[in-house]
Design goal:
single chain, two-stranded parallel sheet, Non-haem dioxygenase N-terminal domain-containing protein, alpha+beta, Jelly Rolls, 18% strand, metal-binding, oxidoreductase activity, globular, metal ion binding, DIOX_N
Length: 204
């Protein structure tokens, strides 16, 4: 199998020079938007298990996957159900997704998580549960490209608390260069993004 590797910056998290590491991450985000991490502390076996169980999940019959249909932004979304950029992809995104939230406490948000049947050994995308605990929210995605290639990716999001106000950093704005966006609560921003992403799915 041919691996698709992009030429991106490689950030080594084992470096004792945290200021230099932070500067490298900042530069990579500005110039590329993505970067590779090495020596991040997550065992290779855990990562391999996440992708193995993701493949099993997305290989299930559609009827079975739809039993985990997204509720409160947790669970499965089928092909073209999301539209992150309706202008470039008016029919929706050519990907399936499976969303999982926090696992490490007994809050209401944790109870929203949906899991495939235990019999199929997919209850936590394998021992990826340890991996997911590191995350604020995570998802596995199965991209279908031109009907001839599929790419599975695992992403995680570390979101601020819902009542956290997100606003432009003072040192990044001035009278001559005011903030482009007004302050907004993290929870309100995410709700609006979800509304727009699933607008076509909801018939909005």
């Amino acid at each position: 199998m041919t691996e698709l590797l992009l030429k991106l910056p490689i950030i080594d998290l084992s470096s004792s020079d945290t200021s230099s590491t932070a500067a490298s991450i900042r530069q990579a985000c500005i110039e590329h938007g993505f970067f590779y991490l090495v020596n991040h502390g997550v065992e290779d076996e855990v990562l391999e298990k996440v992708f193995l169980e993701s493949k099993k999940l997305f290989s299930l019959p559609l009827e079975e996957k739809m039993r985990l249909d997204r509720k409160e932004n947790r669970g499965y979304t089928p092909l073209f159900a999301e539209a992150l950029d309706p202008v470039s992809a008016p029919k929706g995104d050519p990907k399936e997704s499976y969303y999982v939230g926090r696992l490490e406490d007994d809050s209401a948000a944790v109870k929203l998580n949906q899991w495939p049947s235990q019999e199929k050994n997919l209850s936590s995308l394998g021992s990826g549960k340890m991996f997911l605990i590191y995350m604020g929210e995570s998802m596995a995605m199965n991209f279908h490209l031109n009907g001839c290639m599929t790419i599975i990716s695992a992403a995680f999001f570390l979101d601020p608390k819902e009542d956290c106000v997100v606003e432009c950093i003072e040192s990044c704005c001035s009278e001559s260069s005011p903030p482009r966006f007004p302050p907004i609560r993290s929870g309100d921003y995410l709700k609006e993004r979800f509304r727009l992403t699933y607008a076509s799915d909801a018939g909005l």
